[in-house]
Amino acid sequence: MCPLPRNVTVSNHPCLKAKLSQLRSATCSPKQTRALVKEISLLLACDALKSVLSIEEEGTDVTPLGAEFPVEIVSPKRIAFIPILRSGLAMVEAFETILPENVPVYHLGLFREKTTLQPVEYYNNLPTRIMPSTHDCDVAIILDPVIATGGTAEAAIQTLRDWGVGKILVVSVLASVQGVSRAAMESGGEGIQVFVGGVDQKLESQGMIYPGIGDIGDRLFLTVGK
User: Model-level pTM greater than 0.85?
Assistant: First the structure.
């Protein structure tokens, strides 16, 4: 495999690898596909969130036995999930399950134009900043099951930079070497970390990863052939 940028982490978890193999199968039903994407996302969330979060103490509480203990919370507090519509929605619940506090979920809608393979934004519900110098989020976590050409991830990163986010985490179930490298090195890779479940070498002329997992959006939402 070609060397990947240093800010890319590929999971080596045996359970994740086995589940990714199951997800690749053409016999995997939409229900099974949704379950596998969620389960793989849970495994990715543990490592990915560990890389950008730390613990700090915030007051004390009391156990059922009356013992006082320091309350530990994650830092930073201002975190946001950014699922890429539509398939990124399948990863949100897993990350919400792992994170101990509720965080906002903002959506970016991007599709890949079939001829040029370039990303086109059709939806963006990031809140408008009141002042250009204010920041609504310290860590933004982009969720997208597949990074193929890398164009969508790159465009999402650029949008978040324009929004004022300094730390961006990109998490994906599967990526191509070309795509993950392109995303990781946007603006030289400053402030970006990428976590993926697996990496495939080949990218077809139509922008699909090979052997890959097919069009994961169609598989998740039963729209194959649309």
Answer: yes
